[in-house]
Design brief:
Elements (H helix, E strand, L loop, with lengths): L14 H20 L3 E2 L5 E3 H9 L3 H6 L1 E4 L5 E4 L4 H10 L8 E10 L11 E10 L4 H17 L7 E6 L3 H17 L6 H9 L13 H5 L10 H17 L4 E2 L11 E8 L8 E7 L3 H4 L7 E7 H12 L8 E6 L6 H14 L3 E5 L6 H10 L4 E4 L2 H6 L2 E5 L7 E3 L1 H12 L1
Parallel strand pairs: 1-5, 7-8, 12-13, 12-14
Antiparallel strand pairs: 2-4, 3-4, 5-6, 6-11, 7-9, 9-10, 10-11, 14-15, 15-16
Helix pairs in contact: 1-5, 1-11, 5-9
Length: about 425
Amino acid sequence: MAQLQSIRGMRDLLPDESKIWARVEHAVQDTVHAFGYREIRLPVVEATALFQRSVGDTTDIVEKEMYSFDSRDGESLTLRPEGTAGCVRAALQHGLAFNRISRLWYRGPMFRYERPQKGRYRQFEQTGIEAFGIAAPALDAELIEINRCYLQKLGVAEQVRLRINSLGTPASRTLYVERLKAYLESRIDELDADSLRRLARNPLRVLDSKAVSMRKIIDEAPDIEDSLDDESRRHFQEVLKLLDVLGVDYQVDQGLVRGLDYYTHTVFEFETQLLGAQGAISGGGRYDGLVEALGGRPTPAAGFAIGMDRLVLLYKEMQGEESVSAADIIYCATADADSMGYLLHHVNRLRADLGGYQVILDTAGGKLSTQLRRADKEGATWAVIVGETERSASTLTLKPMKEVGEQQSLTYDALVARLRRVEG
């Protein structure tokens, strides 16, 4: 029988990798928490109609990338391809989006059927941040500042640049789409097959094309700035003014439209050149019409999502995996069966008193030399050893595993004091 493997585009995160993920996740979560955002946990399966109505039925996500299936009662369900739609649905369902301010964040796996490559998986991790009930440009600037803060915390900010643009109000966006459509139709013989399909259904999507043959056509397309109304211009200029005050570097990019239909006003992306084609680390913007489109009352809203897979890749690229160390390990062993209860008692005390360490008890047994070899494979910093001698004297033997030094027989309090000095 053939050995089963993980599904293509979906992967296992082994312990050495997961400790790096934990470091990155904690930096993001600590930052979001500091800005006053509260965690919400969302289901990974939603009604397919939710994404058709929010993301847009002409986007690549809905047309080609969703994992959809029929439930036993015939309802079409989808593994979530992104998080904003589900968060808006939950905010509406539980009264978090109307006539109040809600700052929410979530994390977890998303699913899209696309070609797997470095930094792009069919099951991928996102952290999303969403705010409801705030129309002011200050919110747009705050969301960008959140990104800058966690990037600085991880030491990667210098390798990430911010691109920003405005899509304006729905009215100005509609005007721009008409101008863009007329321009693209004037060059229809130069469009590739994918762009022709997008032109017929949603011309704005043509600007998302990654085809080399489309690059010159896209570069020469009308600028959306020329279609912005006064309200849109004022909003965008205030966002840029606040970013200047904060000292945030940015590049206004007229070609940035984001790939989802619900965006209005400010859109932005943080990207890096260190990861090749998969350089987008996070992106988002304002989506003031989405709550109403999903059945709620008109509610201003904005947010962004972090591609955690790519952020981890960037962190590893900048910091190196060896710099990401787990807590020091204390490995506890005994070859004397009668001493196991004595050792177990002290292991529990060590875990309570030395929170900065991992304390592992060898429960497999065997010769002491065998247990110490296991300690070495675990990467232990220290070994705590007991036997009949230590049990009789109410002591423990502390043995350094990574440094040159003599092992010592110590009382419990003296052992803890010794390890605290090292930890400090």
